Amino acid sequence: MADTCRSCSSWVDDIYWTHFKFTHFAQRLPPDFDQHLALPKRFSDSLKRKFPDNVTLRGPGGAELTVKLSTKDDILHFTNGWQQFAQDHFLEENDLLIFKYNGESQFDVLIFDKKNLCEKVASYFVRDSGQTNQRNTDNNCVGEENIPTNIDVKGALPKKSARGKSKKTSKKARKATVECTPAQPTKRRGRSKGSDAHAGGIEWVADAETASTGGNKIIEIVDASNPKAIIENAKKNTLQLAQAACPADGFYVVMRPSHVFRRFYLTIPMKWMTEHFPLQSEDVILRVGEIEWLAKYVFEASRCTGGLTAGWKQFVMDNNLREFDVCVFNQANIGKKPLTLDVKIFKVDV
């Protein structure tokens, strides 16, 4: 009987390590974690396939970093690049990390706080490493080719709008820096109930109709037999269009998984937020053309961060937003309530 159990256990192990697409391991961060991190020996020994020299670590918010795998004393370690990942994600000794390996060259990482074993919220608001960033300072618009789960913003004084009741706000001059990424607009129809809070009897109709931007379209010849190259080129052209269309008083956000399906939470860049938004939670109107959605802007005073939650999901669904699409935001009614953001949607055209 014991032999049968051992045989069964061996068979189960073999099935898991050789046939499962994804494998996982957890690791408590040791005192010297800031320099390198060892992978569990059972994990590396059990995977029959050879690991690549370099792998991608993707944090909870989608920010990615290339890290070198090195062998020391017959144990695999994350080395070059790991230090930057640890710093970017605010890692501390005894934090618990869960790694999901895709079987090729990528690890998705979840990060749990050592004190309460809940996810570290800050790890969702991390920008991609500077090694992949490319900045364009034309027209004061900040852009990145490999934009993270979070946002880059470009802000300044928005145009005035007649919407909403007027309330006194700070007369302080506002400036900011934004990131825009365009794509081609689409039409989507539907109805959005949005948030019940402060709806004021207004019917929030989710009939999104985006306006296309002017300017010359940049066209590149790409090998049609290479789908990946076509997609990458489409994303690149979208980014270039966004950079050209990004106003000095707005900001743009490249859609990441946390924006459009994982959490449906859109972080407002801190610099733009502190100069344009009140440091308190309140309702916000998202407007595309003549169509409006009611969303909730939530401010976290303890971390000085803010983002769009309730209502944002409906906006995403109604406009069929996908990863790498881009939304350009511009405040439309300075000094008036509710806050109104005009939104232009650019979609990756493949």
Automatic annotation (TrEMBL):
PROSITE patterns: B3. One of its GO terms (cellular component) is nucleus. GO terms for molecular function: DNA binding. SUPFAM superfamilies: DNA-binding pseudobarrel domain (SSF101936). Pfam families: B3. It is found in: Nucleus. Residues 160-175 have a biased composition (Basic residues). Residues 22-115, 251-349 form the TF-B3 domain. Residues 155-199 are annotated as: Disordered. Its main location: nucleus. Keywords: DNA-binding, Nucleus, Transcription, Transcription regulation. It comes from the Eukaryota. The keyword DNA-binding applies. This is TF-B3 domain-containing protein.
